[in-house]
Design goal:
3 helices
Length: about 80
């Protein structure tokens, strides 16, 4: 067991929560901008923004619960 816990398993600080909220807003702005894609490139950007938001939300939830990546992958 390491002497210091990994940063990813520590509780979130208010600064980290604000940074996560800013990142989510930026992704939501991208989704809003590409909500009506006209070509394949815009559909690709929309898909990337949606996937990025999903990953960010999952990571934020995992950090809020104080789980590591390995713990979140274990079946319940």
């Amino acid at each position: 067991m390491p002497q210091f816990p990994r940063q990813s398993s520590r509780p979130l600080s208010p600064v980290s929560i604000r940074a996560s909220a800013r990142r989510a807003r930026a992704l939501l702005d991208q989704i809003d901008h590409y909500a009506d894609p006209q070509d394949a490139r815009e559909r690709q950007r929309l898909t990337r923004a949606i996937n990025g938001l999903a990953h960010a939300a999952r990571d934020l939830s995992r950090r809020h619960r104080g789980q590591s990546v390995a713990e979140s992958l274990e079946p319940e």
